[in-house]
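Ticket #4471: structure export looks truncated?
Reporter: QA, pipeline team
Priority: medium

Steps to reproduce: submit the single chain below to the structure queue and open the exported record.
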Amino acid sequence: ASVNDGDNIVKLEAYADRLLIFKKNKLELLNVSQEIEFIEEIFLYKGVLHPAATFKTDFGIAWVNREGCYLYDGQKVTNLLERGGMQIIKESDWNSFTTDNSTIGYIPKKRQIVVLKDCTATSHGDSYLFDLVTQSWVKGNTAFTDSQIQTNFVTDWNGDLVHAHTSGTGTIVKWDDASAESQSMVMTT
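Actual output as written to the record:
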């Protein structure tokens, strides 16, 4: 990895024969397929501010930051906020949604990525859900417990996405996308 570049390593992830070195301001892709490792590529503005902003999926490594939501599939880095050269979520909407404490998880049974707006107790539990099959986003209002500190996401023994929040003494919650009745709905096309 590059040294003395003024950027701290936040998290390491491995996928295929690559090591993804997430720093605060950039991502360094280290090729470890040969006897001598080498930096294959450096992606500016694709770093993360904390370890819960990355998650390993069966499609690759997903991560979130203020500039976008990305997936490295072993070949390339894709910004999931764009499709066919067009923005799916406006830059300004994403910037107002995300914080320095946004986190990401993966639901393997449904092949969906979930982004929590903020894991601190100062925020609402709003989220975005990305379906890898349909390549579409859905925004959720208070999908997670509001005003509670949230842990990082993990996948349990049963393939369910779980995390804990500080309501009480630490409540472990499984992701549930069952439908619920609502008095208001906004549909944007």
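Status: closed, not a bug. The export was complete when the record was re-opened. Leaving a note from the reviewer for reference: Helices lie at 91-97.
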